[in-house]
Amino acid sequence: MAKNHRSDRSPADPVSRLAPGTVLDRLASGPSRASRITHTEHLPPRAGRHAVWPDRIRPEVIAAVRAAGIEHPWAHQARAAEHALDGDSVVVATGTASGKSLAYLVPVFSALLDGSEAPNGRGSTALYLAPTKALAADQCRSVKELSQPLGHAVRPAVYDGDTPFEEREWIRQYATYVLTNPDMLHRGILPSHPRWSSFLKSLEYVVIDECHTYRGVFGSHVAQVLRRLRRLCARYGADPVFLLASATAAEPAVAARRLTGLPVVEVADDASPRGELVFALWEPPLTEMQGEKGAPVRRTATAETADLLTDLTLQGVRSVAFVRSRRGAELISVIAQERLGEIDRSLVRRVAAYRGGYLPEERRALERALHSGELLGLAATTALELGVDVSGLDAVVIAGYPGTRASLWQQAGRAGRSGQGALAVLVARDDPLDTFLVHHPEALFDQPVESTVLDPDNPYVLAPHLCAAAAELPLTDDDLELFGPQAADLLPQLEAAKLLRRRTRAWHWTRRERAADLTDIRGEGGRPVQIVESGTGRLLGTVDEGAAHASVHEGAVHLHQGRTYLVRSLDLDDSVALVEEANPPYSTVARDTTSISVLETDTEIPWGEGRLCYGSVEVTNQVVSFLRRRLITGEVLGETKLDLPPRTLRTRAVWWTVTEDQLDEARINPEILGGALHAAEHASIGMLPLFATCDRWDIGGVSIPLHPDTLLPTVFVYDGHPGGAGFAERAFHTARAWLTATRQAIASCECEAGCPSCIQSPKCGNGNDPLHKRGAVRLLTVLLRGAPAEKPPGAEGA
């Protein structure tokens, strides 16, 4: 992580490094393989630019860095360190493997050394926040290695849910560099701040790694957790400097300011060297299978990625396949292992899966195998995207567009981390956005990465943090400015709900339970559902409560560590899903129904005769059945009804309406109106991730030929989180470009009547019925004729 010049490939690793173009040629050499590559982008190597460390850095720290093989810093590292020493909060937004870790570790180590010489007290401390446990553990290993020559001044320790209780007191009392995650800060450290008082009053630096991941509801929660941290530090007399590290992002200082609530200086000129990157766009072929309504079906990205991971392993190419879902990561590893076993049984153990939800000991074992080179191929979720030091990788396969250009480049950057050439392959899913991108490479390679979207003032986010803050220390009027302009309005509501009480000049928490338990900062809410093997009682893992209805309903297929299980029962009261091992020849996909009502329209603008609106809505959703799909081909084998309770969600949405005259102009009669609206809704949801830092699964949609609140044909797209996440707002402000790209994606698809590449949705609650492709194109054409010119970028705020 803090390594500028050296490769971490183990000398015992026999794998040879091939030129990325050679690796790609071999992948494309099979039958019909070459035609699957729609575009190849060659990013040339880049020379590095050195600088010198600021003279205020302790010479012992510079000597330790040199002992690690790093003679001179890159220019951006030295500049970031200078800002940190000046007391400026700073965000380093440079490419993967550009040495961001060293940029903040050097000033932190120097401060810890200075503090160790203080005559009284424990000296200086620093806090490191990572979005995942794996990244914190990986960083701790790097810190211990780099700081070894510095003696006891740097005492790093990981403090998270996996930390043994017998170690926690030592960490609170003696650790000078504590590595944790926002969840533990929210639930463990801040509510217990008196036990952390000596650490907090000495806190000089707060490091926030991979800060671009703090977006949407999660990012909004983390922003309020950081405000609570700043408030407690101030009470203990500390005013820490914030050092943030981000992948390349648009307006990183603006996003960092929203996250921390502080002015932040931006360092975004990447001075590190880069090896050649060959980036291929890969579209799986059409199959002879037919999907819903007889639509043509492409070979799945899962099957295609498993083939590529198998071929790369056979070539001895160290690779990671990034997969969007836990189930997909498991399935790809299983398929690759089976195919490798048919060729050479010894290769089976060289491929594995890595995802969230594993037990701590399973994660640690996989991370050790990665570092040792024991594993050649890994199918991983984004749990591995976030900075874990997987040096020496030769290739990355990305199974489906990861939702944002920032994530795409973050994942692609995992290969070639020792500065040598690397291969990245994006395998398109049968999805409107993926299909659009592999045929419009300029949308990936000629466009800047997105701005980070978060909304700390979301009342559903802010309210529980005001309660948590009041429980930590009574909340005064002077504190309210720190928490944003909505705080004062929420306090009377929290008092009416008997959560807070005003006494003299402060608000107090009134309940016996812990205020920090009011919210799950990951945005899921509710207690995680435990997945238990019925025959043995063994805990296999957990699934978020919000996803349980769709993923571990009765009859669902669940994959864990290469084994397949069937869910026999889901107990929502006790949050337990009982499973038993099985080997069904199918996967399962949940189906649901959704209705929506308008609560309040915040903004409404004319689009010709139509209207574009943004405001608050209430969504009612119910999982009603599940489909069984044949493995590999995706063929639908049958549907089973479910009896699960409905769930309601108050959130934010963008919606548009059309008039009868516009329908006449678009030649839309009542028989095809529902299908045209439904098709436009599906495609617009699929395309929104190109314009907002969201995932298709972060948003939902509803289309209705005559909505009772608008009294017109209406299409809604809403945030899938209570109170909203900022995605619908971004959609409203970029609506012209967003819906233009949506129309283009539908119109350019080669299918006759609609397919998963344009208007069919993998999560449609109505079985993709009705849909009308040509009607959607005509409808969007008429709607866009009345669209006003858009505001310049950034006019709507960060």
From TrEMBL:
<dbReference type="Pfam" id="PF22982">
    <property type="entry name" value="WHD_HRQ1"/>
</dbReference>
<dbReference type="Pfam" id="PF09369">
    <property type="entry name" value="MZB"/>
</dbReference>
<feature type="region of interest" description="Disordered">
    <location>
        <begin position="26"/>
        <end position="51"/>
    </location>
</feature>
<keyword id="KW-0347">Helicase</keyword>
<dbReference type="Pfam" id="PF00271">
    <property type="entry name" value="Helicase_C"/>
</dbReference>
<dbReference type="InterPro" id="IPR022307">
    <property type="entry name" value="Helicase_put_actinobac"/>
</dbReference>
<dbReference type="InterPro" id="IPR011545">
    <property type="entry name" value="DEAD/DEAH_box_helicase_dom"/>
</dbReference>
<dbReference type="InterPro" id="IPR018973">
    <property type="entry name" value="MZB"/>
</dbReference>
<dbReference type="InterPro" id="IPR055227">
    <property type="entry name" value="HRQ1_WHD"/>
</dbReference>
<feature type="domain" description="Helicase ATP-binding">
    <location>
        <begin position="81"/>
        <end position="267"/>
    </location>
</feature>
<dbReference type="Pfam" id="PF00270">
    <property type="entry name" value="DEAD"/>
</dbReference>
<protein>
    <submittedName>
        <fullName>DEAD/DEAH box helicase</fullName>
    </submittedName>
</protein>
<keyword id="KW-0378">Hydrolase</keyword>
<keyword id="KW-0547">Nucleotide-binding</keyword>
<dbReference type="InterPro" id="IPR001650">
    <property type="entry name" value="Helicase_C-like"/>
</dbReference>
<dbReference type="InterPro" id="IPR014001">
    <property type="entry name" value="Helicase_ATP-bd"/>
</dbReference>
<dbReference type="GO" id="GO:0004386">
    <property type="term" value="F:helicase activity"/>
</dbReference>
<dbReference type="InterPro" id="IPR027417">
    <property type="entry name" value="P-loop_NTPase"/>
</dbReference>
<feature type="domain" description="Helicase C-terminal">
    <location>
        <begin position="304"/>
        <end position="460"/>
    </location>
</feature>
<keyword id="KW-0067">ATP-binding</keyword>
